[in-house]
């Protein structure tokens, strides 16, 4: 039987939250001026972008932030409405009546729930795509974007569905320790997504080819040798059909290690700018940031699963009679577990972002040390800001919550300082 009072309360809370977020984001003065001592220096975005560009970028950032802060809470709202209104209960009962084989019914229910979540997120995905298209970042037409989106959904579903079914097998067989066994199950999945997925799955979405022999390639491999990176090949990926943004990275492990550059970088950056950016990426490898991030992700997975165990047990004790299940071992509990996972991930974002910013700052320092051309970092990151429509100096709260990299103005200021101190200053 549907319970309308909790639904009305949750809807009211979401509406009030949306109003508060909108008032904060759209009344906060942006763009924010850089510190006075930076004005007129290369760290001041006004020196390499027009006032109109700065205003456009600030408004674009507002819209992206608004979508970000609404997407996850909107998902929670619909998941809990579905629980209190009995949507998932009716879905499961309908499937059980038509699919007599219990396993098949369970697979169908999980697949249906994943499709539901995809539909919930679709308006935000469409809005993000439309924004990136309108602001000249995305180059994908609608059919390309939709095909790519569907392909991503089917690949993620093929991976997620069996994992969720195994999770419930663990819950049924170990009511008090399932979170621990599930954590052990997640470890190889994290290792796969970190080290194998970029090599195995990314080529399903983009075309990779070896970078042609050139002075740039030889210099990149020389940098790799300095960083003790066991890679003898450099790949170019055709991202220009998707975006105008710039990027490069080092991925894989052991003999699977590969150095990858987006073709947009090759087309829009000078050799020195590319080498500085590659030195930054190699710094992550040299300082084992990928491994540190992996261990932190594994630790975070155990903490998250324990939180899911504790909170789901409490929630079912008080609300399970409304939702139609009395144990997390029932597949009907999956929407609850997903909601707890999503809330935990959202709330922990500032912590994850802060750690990431520390690593990115360290990689910047490595690039300054190994390349010794800070001016290339200045000009390269200015180009990065222009092409990515970046808000180079965001509000403190937005930086604290969302920014996985130090704001570009801060990084540019560091490069300017290094340039003033460097004997190689032009």
Spell out the blueprint of helices and strands.
Layout: H1 4-27, H2 51-85, H3 87-98, H4 102-134, H5 142-173, H6 178-200, E1 208-210, H7 215-226, E2 234-237, E3 248-251, E4 258-262, H8 263-268, H9 271-286, H10 289-323, H11 334-347, H12 349-371, H13 374-387, H14 396-402, H15 408-421
Helix pairs in contact: 1-2, 2-4, 2-11, 3-4, 4-5, 5-6, 6-10, 7-9, 9-12, 9-13, 10-11, 13-15
Could you provide a short overview of the structure?
The protein is mostly helical and 426 residues long.
* Run of helices and strands: HHHHHHEHEEEHHHHHHHH
Q: Count the strands?
A: 4
Shape: globular
The stretches of 5 or more residues where confidence is low (pLDDT under 50) are none
Rg over CA atoms: 24 Å
Q: How many angstroms separate the termini? A: 75 Å
How many helices in DSSP terms? 15
Biggest sheet character:
4 strands, mixed
- Mean pLDDT reading: 92
Helix content: over 70%
For the largest beta sheet, what order do the strands appear in spatially?
1-2-4-3
């Amino acid at each position: 039987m549907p319970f309308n009072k909790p639904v009305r309360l949750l809807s009211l809370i979401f509406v009030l939250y949306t109003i508060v977020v909108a008032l904060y984001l759209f009344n906060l003065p942006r763009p924010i001026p850089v510190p006075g001592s930076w004005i007129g220096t290369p760290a001041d975005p006004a020196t390499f972008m027009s006032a109109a560009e700065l205003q456009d970028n600030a408004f674009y950032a507002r819209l992206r932030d608004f979508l970000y802060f609404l997407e996850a809470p909107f998902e929670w709202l619909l998941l809990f409405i579905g629980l209190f209104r009995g949507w998932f209960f009716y879905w499961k009962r309908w499937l059980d009546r038509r699919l007599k084989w219990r396993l098949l019914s369970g697979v169908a229910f999980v697949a249906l729930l994943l499709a539901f979540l995809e539909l919930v997120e679709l308006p935000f995905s469409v809005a993000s795509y439309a924004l990136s298209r309108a602001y000249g970042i995305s180059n994908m037409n609608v059919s390309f974007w939709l095909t790519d989106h569907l392909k991503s959904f089917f690949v993620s579903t093929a991976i997620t569905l069996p994992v969720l079914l195994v999770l419930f097998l663990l819950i049924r067989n170990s009511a008090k320790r399932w979170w621990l066994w599930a954590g052990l199950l997640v470890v190889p999945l994290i290792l796969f997504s970190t080290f194998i997925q970029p090599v195995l799955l990314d080529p399903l979405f983009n075309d990779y080819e070896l970078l042609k022999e050139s002075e740039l390639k030889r210099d990149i491999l020389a940098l790799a040798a300095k960083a003790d990176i066991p890679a003898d090949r450099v790949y170019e990926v055709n991202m220009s059909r998707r975006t105008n943004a710039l990027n490069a990275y080092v991925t894989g492990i052991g003999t699977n290690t590969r150095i990858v550059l987006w073709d947009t970088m090759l087309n829009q950056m000078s050799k020195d700018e590319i080498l500085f950016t590659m030195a930054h990426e190699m710094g992550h490898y040299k300082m084992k940031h990928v491994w540190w991030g992996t261990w932190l992700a594994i630790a975070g997975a155990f903490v998250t699963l324990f939180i899911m165990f504790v909170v789901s047990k409490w929630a079912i004790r008080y609300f399970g009679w409304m939702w139609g299940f009395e144990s997390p071992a029932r597949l009907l509990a999956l929407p609850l577990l997903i909601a707890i996972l999503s809330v935990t991930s959202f709330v922990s974002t500032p912590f994850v972002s802060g750690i990431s910013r520390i690593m990115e700052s360290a990689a910047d320092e490595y690039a300054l040390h190994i390349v010794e051309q800070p001016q290339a970092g200045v000009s390269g990151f200015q180009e990065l800001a222009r092409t990515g429509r970046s808000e180079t100096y965001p509000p403190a709260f937005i930086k604290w919550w969302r920014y996985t990299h130090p704001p570009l103005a801060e990084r540019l200021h560091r490069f300017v300082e290094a340039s003033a101190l460097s004997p190689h200053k032009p």
